[in-house]
Design goal:
- By secondary structure, the chain is α/β, with parallel strands linked by helices.
- It has 4 domains: 154 residues, HUPs (Rossmann fold, 3-Layer(aba) Sandwich), CATH 3.40.50.620; 155 residues, 3-Layer(aba) Sandwich (Rossmann fold); 65 residues, no CATH class; 93 residues, Arc Repressor Mutant, subunit A, CATH 1.10.10.
- Helices cover 43% and strands 12% of the residues.
- Strands 5-6-9 form a 3-stranded antiparallel β-sheet.
- β10, α7 and β11 form a beta-alpha-beta unit.
């Protein structure tokens, strides 16, 4: 792998829909490689397949890359502007360039016009399938004489232009991840380079653009391995030196089938919308086929860039394990400062109509309580160690921001304690708490535990029902931290409601 030259790599998606996990990994590995070697990361939009291009698809990809934290050095933006001196960076704006280059190939005999109709091609394909032969073009038009070809062109016959693959020998290229790969030329299709509508196919456009944009390494998915010998032949036909190639392993479902939206959500934007942090999603995606070979799994983007080594990427498929994504997201959530955690959490609480901005902070819609920034941080800290993504916060903290929890009175009973004993303890606890003035977590814990000892209660007979009364849950944060966040008035109201349930 050559890194002594100025590294230039590109992520070149087709705007046929949302950016999926596989596309994010390709973009990320290109980004990491560029940053690792002080190179340039380019975004190029490959929109020459007009039947599959989705309106707004390019803008969606750009926005998702930005949300994920992958800033590119050259390429288009959502406003239609571009930065970089090798543009345009949108292929549909480069049609004249492709036509100029295809003319050179035809003139040199490296490409030829094909006049076969779709019906003819399908008939040949079915015959090949029946004979269990490779389904490649039979080169009928390649053998056509120049006068016959010129007559059909003059007559206006629709045609495409195909690459003339050498009929003998083989084509070999070196892959940074997979080492040397060889294809027999007789098994390589004379693929279409220019369609009848004047638009190039991927083969022509990507090779021309990669050369003109001085791309040094082409890092892409392994599904492009069968196309690479065609690209190498194209480079040779133009008299150009090919870049280095690196083909990334497939991403797999848990059952080891090819990753599919039929089995799991693969849209990057959906994960970000649900509350997975960009840092966690990037961390997770980076480890799909590569590992920094260190005794840890949690990394920030700059740490990944310092460690990334393209030859260390695995050649075998990588399983997408969403449990690991959840775990990593929890780790990254806990790395945030209290202030940053609150800043990122607020949109989810607002979207669930649990809080509304107001002068001085937020209003809790259910209780009418005004929350300062510190109040909000304290509330969010209750489930911070347990929550796995920000989208879970409205449900996780519903006992704080929502209505008084509904629960069955049996939840209040500690082990085999008598309900009457629990009811008496909660009632006396409420009376004791009503006299407290220092309503902080530490004061509550110290005073209540001392009171339990003085009254002769078992700790569980008071603290279990206290926590259940305040949260309505079997599993929840401790009673003192919950009470401190709820405040005195709401704490007493919930304790008294619990007593009523045991009457």
């Amino acid at each position: 792998m050559a890194t002594d030259q100025k590294i230039r790599v590109r992520f070149a998606p087709s705007p046929t829909g949302f950016l999926h996990i596989g596309g994010l990994r390709t973009a990320l590995y290109n980004y990491l490689f560029a940053r690792r070697w002080g190179g340039t990361f380019i975004l190029r939009i490959e929109d020459t397949d007009r039947t599959r291009t989705v309106p707004g698809g390019a803008e969606g990809i750009i926005r998702t890359l930005r949300r994920a934290g992958l800033d590119y050095d050259e390429g288009p933006d959502v406003e239609g502007q571009e930065r970089g001196k090798y543009g345009p960076y949108v292929q549909s704006k480069r049609l004249t360039i492709y036509r100029e280059h295809i003319y050179k190939l035809v003139t040199a005999g490296a490409a030829y016009q094909c006049f076969c109709s779709p019906e003819e091609l399908e008939t040949v394909r079915q015959i090949q399938i029946a004979a269990k032969q490779p389904t490649i073009y039979n080169k009928k038009c390649r053998e056509m004489s120049s006068p016959d070809r010129a007559a059909l062109i003059k007559d206006g016959r629709p045609h495409v232009i195909r690459l003339a693959i050498p009929e003998e020998g083989s084509t070999t290229f070196s892959d940074i991840i997979r080492k040397e790969i060889t294809f027999e030329n007789r098994l390589i299709d004379d693929s279409v380079l220019l369609k009848s509508d004047g638009y190039p196919t991927y083969h022509l456009a990507s090779v021309v653009d990669d050369h003109l944009m001085n791309i040094t390494q082409v890092i892409r998915g392994e599904e492009w391995i069968p196309s690479t010998p065609k690209h190498v032949i194209l480079y040779r036909a133009f008299g150009w030196t090919p870049p280095e190639f690196a083909h990334l392993p497939l991403l797999l479902n848990p059952d080891r089938s090819k990753l599919s939206k039929r089995q799991m959500d693969v849209a990057v934007e959906n994960y970000l919308d649900r509350g997975y942090l960009p840092e966690a999603l990037i961390n997770f995606t980076a480890l799909l086929g590569w590992n920094p070979q260190a005794d840890r799994e949690v990394y920030e983007l700059d740490e990944l860039a310092r460690s990334f080594n393209l030859p260390d990427v695995n050649s075998s498929g990588a399983v997408v394990n969403l449990e690991k994504l959840g775990w990593l997201n929890g780790q990254h959530l806990r790395r945030l400062s209290k202030e940053e955690y609150a800043r990122r959490a607020v949109p989810y609480l607002e979207a669930a109509s649990l809080i509304t901005p107001c002068p001085g902070g937020w209003v809790n819609e259910q209780s009418g309580t005004i929350l300062s920034s510190q109040d909000l941080q304290n509330a969010l800290s209750l489930e911070r160690e347990r929550v796995r993504n920000l989208g879970d916060l409205p449900e996780a903290l519903s006992f704080i921001f929502g209505a008084v929890p509904e629960y069955d009175g049996d939840l209040l009973i500690w082990k085999d304690a008598e309900p009457a004993r629990i009811m008496k303890g909660l009632g006396e606890l409420a009376e004791f708490l009503e006299l407290m003035r220092d309503w902080t977590e530490s004061a509550l814990e110290a005073r209540v535990k001392a009171w339990i000892d003085e009254q002769g209660y078992d700790t569980g007979q008071i603290l279990w029902p206290m926590r259940a009364a305040l949260t309505g849950r079997k599993a929840s944060p401790g009673p003192f931290e919950v009470a401190a966040v709820l405040g005195k008035e709401r704490t007493l109201a919930r304790l008294r409601k619990a007593v009523e349930k045991l009457l």
